[in-house]
């Protein structure tokens, strides 16, 4: 039986402030805080960018930008075919 990655239970993002602008920064900050608080552990697989964007009702590019920023900062790691952790 093939193994499938388990997506982490996403902590509540609360409400994104669409009036404040830069939604990708808000998504990145919420994920960064979840890592700091231990809500996201190193081995936890994050949802796909499409799934997270749909749940937050934002453009996929917004989530891609947030993931890319956190990868650059070392908070997340991404491997092709293995997802983002």
Describe the structure.
- With 85 residues, the protein is mainly α.
- The protein has helices at residues 23-37, 49-56, 60-73; strands spanning 78-79, 83-84.
- It has 3 helices and 2 strands, in the order H-H-H-E-E.
- Strands 1-2 form a two-stranded antiparallel sheet.
- Helix 1 (23-37) crosses helix 3 (60-73) and helix 2 (49-56) crosses helix 3 (60-73).
- The longest helix is centred in the middle third of the chain and has 15 residues, at 23-37.
- It is globular, with a radius of gyration of 13 Å.
- It starts with 22 loop residues before the first helix and ends with a strand.
- The model is unreliable at 1-5 (pLDDT under 50).
How would you summarize what this structure contains?
Helices cover 44% and strands 5% of the residues. With 85 residues, the chain is mostly helical. It has a two-stranded antiparallel ribbon with strand order 1-2.
């Amino acid at each position: 039986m093939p193994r499938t990655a388990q997506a982490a239970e996403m902590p509540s993002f609360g409400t994104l402030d669409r009036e404040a602008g830069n939604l990708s920064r808000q998504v990145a900050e919420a994920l960064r805080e979840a890592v700091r608080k231990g809500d996201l552990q190193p081995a936890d697989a994050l949802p796909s960018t499409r799934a997270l964007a749909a749940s937050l009702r934002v453009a996929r590019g917004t989530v891609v930008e947030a993931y890319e920023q956190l990868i650059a900062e070392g908070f997340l790691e991404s491997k092709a075919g293995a997802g983002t952790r």
